[in-house]
Specification:
Chain lengths: 338, 311
């Protein structure tokens, strides 16, 4: 008798089977993705989803059974996360990112990119001028570990040998393909880690980013000055630019992403700080991801191509081509809808 | 619902409501998710970290035995990828890393949108700042700019790690820095569980209540009673006796000489009370909770509640 009087019980009795079915579908979709469902099941999913949501609303207003309410709540919550899961799979998302998301994000933060470029240029200028003024200051800018024995006391011949990968006797015996790959992998890991750190440090309101970019610039400046001293500027650029175009750009990009985020933290404007940070963080995350890809390419060029190809002409050609390619990519890609 | 009730601990029955967060679906229904605790997130991260470290160590050992340069190059790349992309990949694909799955938590967008790749990347790249950089400084004994270990940097890194560890405690939704940057949060993965409706159970004894007897309690009391009835019987048996006695006294119900066990009484009362309250609800006269009587009551009689000190 009580069963007929209790509306909530009747309500539950009529719909419970639908909920249970739905629960199974959601579980299956959670395990194997929506692709694991048959077309028939897939067609039922939205109907069942809406039915459960409306059941939740009804239960909230007519049922006093807390167990039922929390069941429907959890069921709908779980289903919601399935229904509104990312629409693209990882590969599709990556493709979209490359063709549109990455260049778009870059165009959106061109101001930050300008700032990071200026800081970098400042670094280069300081490193260059100081080293020209006093060659001994070279090691103020260059880490001894990275210098590979090159310094103000090196002769022109020694420096030239490094640029053209001519090894002294007894050295370089291991200079085979896997050795080069190892070198490339090392460079990639080293540089990409620095890049990601530059982005993440933006979360500290940006000061470390200034420091990091400036430092990178001054190293480059000192390095250039060292070679110009020995009249090797042209040769150095051929050695540096093929990968440098890509790599320096990636560093600037990471720095810009960090600065963009720092800007949002310090000056959110009329938005709430957390909203500003979210927007900037997502854009910055995309850019950092993109620069990891740039670092991969730079690492490959640096680790393999540079060690193999000694012709200045080819080196400059590669540098020019990559510069043009990136310019075109970032200015043009992803302009059209979708 | 009832801020003036001080001594009754709602959390014991209803869970901590400050730990819930609401998302509004495009269909216009608000869904509640339980915010993941910091301990479960730390646990999840520890599992993930252990996984990364163990896999990389095994790889390294395997490669060291072959002494192949190519393999070593591969290791470098895999190391980088596992540190930086294990989290984003899993979270984008399943909403949770393995560690999070084990502990039953997952990542969601704070506004209820589908998780975007950008959000996931931002959230995880900031881990560099929050964990990896200070962690590596710790591992090398404080070596960062200098060539030799420095206790100063070691201490700084330790402090930094600690600061990042407690950072989420300062926001209600337990957001770490990466969550701010990604616009995400971590919640407990909902697990639907439906038990039998208590009103469905037929009691053997015919126990009746009059309208006056059912006019005392409201929704809150009903749900507290529901909670009691759903708990494992052996745990709450003594409690049931007390509660049954109290209710019988309050509503002046007599067993008329029959022997009625506390459980049977409470079940019957639950059914009758729910029926009555639902009927009222349909009529738009729902009762949230029992009406308080003026303070002439003895303190501590009913559920240990004192009469309200109203402000």
């Amino acid at each position: 008798m009580a069963e007929f009087k209790l509306k909530s019980l009747q309500f539950r009795r009529e719909r419970e089977k639908g909920w249970r079915d739905f629960e199974k579908l959601v579980e299956a979709a959670e395990r194997g993705g929506l692709g694991a469902l048959t077309p028939h099941e897939l067609a039922r999913l939205p109907t069942l989803y809406r039915a459960s949501l409306s059941a939740l609303s009804v239960a909230r207003s007519i049922s006093l059974d807390r167990d039922l309410e929390s069941y429907l709540e959890a069921l709908c919550g779980r289903a919601y996360l399935i229904m509104y899961r990312p629409r693209r799979n990882f590969l599709q998302a990556a493709r979209h990112f490359l063709l549109a998301g990455f260049p778009r994000a870059l165009r959106e933060i061109w101001r930050a990119l300008l700032v990071s470029t200026l800081i970098f240029a400042l670094g280069v200028g300081v490193g260059y001028l100081e080293t020209r003024r006093d060659p001994e200051r070279y090691f103020d800018f260059m880490d001894r570990g990275l210098a590979q024995g090159r310094g103000p006391e090196s002769t022109r011949e020694e420096l030239r040998k490094v640029l053209y990968n001519e090894k002294e006797d007894g050295e370089g015996a291991e200079d085979d393909d896997s050795g080069l790959l190892l070198f490339a992998a090392y460079l990639f890991r080293h540089n990409a880690s620095i890049g990601l750190a530059a982005f993440a440090l933006g979360g500290l309101a940006g000061l470390p980013v200034f420091f990091l970019i400036f430092n990178n610039g001054s190293t480059l400046g000192a390095f250039v000055a060292l070679h110009q001293e020995k009249d090797l500027l042209f040769e150095l650029m051929g050695w540096l630019l093929p990968h440098g175009v890509t790599e320096i750009f990636a560093i600037l990009l990471c720095g810009a992403a960090g600065l963009h985020m720092a800007h949002a933290i310090l000056f959110p404007g009329r938005r709430r700080r957390s909203d500003a940070l979210r927007e900037a963080g997502r854009r910055g995350g995309a850019l950092a991801m993109g620069s990891v890809l740039l670092f991969v390419i730079a690492g490959l060029i640096e680790g393999i191509f540079r060690q193999r190809v000694q012709s200045d002409l080819v080196r400059y050609l590669v540098a020019g081509t990559s510069a043009l390619f990136w310019l075109g990519y970032f200015l043009l890609a992803g302009r059209s809808e979708r | 619902m009832s801020p003036e009730r001080k001594s009754f601990d709602r959390r014991r029955v209803f869970g901590d409501e400050s730990r819930m967060t609401e998302l509004r679906t495009p269909e216009g229904v608000g869904l509640h998710f339980r915010i993941a605790t910091m301990s479960s997130r730390m646990g999840a991260f520890t599992i993930d970290l252990a996984l990364i470290v163990v896999v990389n160590l095994l790889l390294l050992i395997g490669l060291a035995m072959t002494l192949d340069l190519l393999g070593f190059a591969l290791f470098m790349v895999l190391w980088f990828l596992s540190v930086n992309f294990y989290f984003p990949f899993c979270e984008y694909r399943w909403g949770a890393t393995l560690g999070k799955r084990v502990l039953g938590v997952r990542v969601i967008d704070r506004r209820g949108a589908p998780l975007s790749l950008e959000a996931i990347l931002a959230r995880n790249f900031l881990r560099d700042l929050e964990f990896w950089v200070p962690f590596l400084v710790l591992c090398t004994g404080g070596q960062i700019f200098a060539d030799s270990p420095s206790p100063g940097y070691f201490l700084l890194a330790l402090l930094w790690l600690f600061a990042m560890l407690v950072f989420p405690a300062f926001s209600r939704r337990r957001l770490r820095l990466g969550d701010y940057a990604g616009g995400t949060m971590v919640v407990e993965a909902p697990r639907p569980q439906l038990s039998k409706d208590l009103a469905q159970k037929r009691t053997d004894e015919e126990i009746h209540f009059t309208a006056e007897q059912l006019a005392l309690y409201g929704k809150l009391e009903l749900q507290v009673l529901e909670d009691l009835l759903r708990r494992p019987y052996h745990e709450v048996k003594p409690m049931m006796g007390k509660v049954a006695r109290r209710i019988r006294k309050r509503i002046a119900w007599s067993s008329e000489g029959r022997k009625v066990s506390p459980r049977a009484f409470l079940e019957a009362f639950y059914q009758a009370q729910r029926e009555e309250l639902e009927r009222l609800m349909v009529l738009g006269k729902g009762r949230e909770e029992r009406e308080r009587r003026p303070a002439r009551e003895r303190p501590g009689t009913d559920d240990g509640n004192r009469p309200a000190d109203r402000t």
